[in-house]
Predict the structure.
Amino acid sequence: MELRQLQYFLKVAQKEHVTRAAEELHVAQSAVSRQIHQLEEELGVDLFMQKGRNLQLTPVGQLFRKRVEAVLNELDRSVAEVHEFLDPERGEIRIGFPHSLGTHLIPTIVAEFRRHYPHVKFRFKQGAYPSLIKDVISGEVDLAFISPFPENDGRVAGDIVMTEELFAILPQNHPLAGEQVISLEQLREEKFVLFSQGYSLRPIVWQACLQAGFKPQIAFEGGETDTIRGLVAAGMGVSLLPEMALYQTNPLQPAQVRVVEPSVTRTVGLIHRSDGKLPLVARSFRTFLLTYFKDRQHNNTPVGS
């Protein structure tokens, strides 16, 4: 069994098509087909079955894919460790984060870190809560920002780095848009623009509304903070977003108002696999981040400034 066979197998499994896999691998289609055939012969099983014009993994193929992904991720980490041993300031950091942190926080902290380590590379992966947990456990990423912090998941370890307030966002012409503070109950009759199922902000907002005595009426759902903010600004409803997601990125902006009764917050954590050893460069970045957030909390300085 050769490394090339495993790499080709995984690419075909991802693309579900030999031709598309070959194009991405920059090799001939026949070479990919030959390597897959040899791998199946060596294992004595069919890894793929035909489904229309595409290929689909067989049950044993699905099991094999999980093992291959783990092996190749471990190999990538091993190669990275060798490179870091030779020059720990030229490694690569793989970091995951939710969409709501991508507008301002991630660019700010990466730029600050690269002031000290200009040759470090970053590989980014955005995702919803379940996919970020999965990526950390599988070794797809070294570190991940996540919200809320997974208090009772033994597969990951980490730290709460900040607690962030959520604000009500309203159309600019909304009767409450000029208020300094409102209670969430005042939005009882409003239509809400919420994140789709699987995004961590959705249950936070949903639970806050229930705590305020009502079930939110959903007008629209989305997966991007820019989409939520834009729909609210266009008068399609109201919502709650963390302050970090409210930095202006386009001319059409909603009004934002502080919410009390109840106050709505979310925890943001930085996690890594509990049974895994972080690469040297990722450990340096984690230490930098913990100091970064601690200093801002101590000095009462807004995160990202």
Summary: The first strand starts at residue 48 and ends at 51.
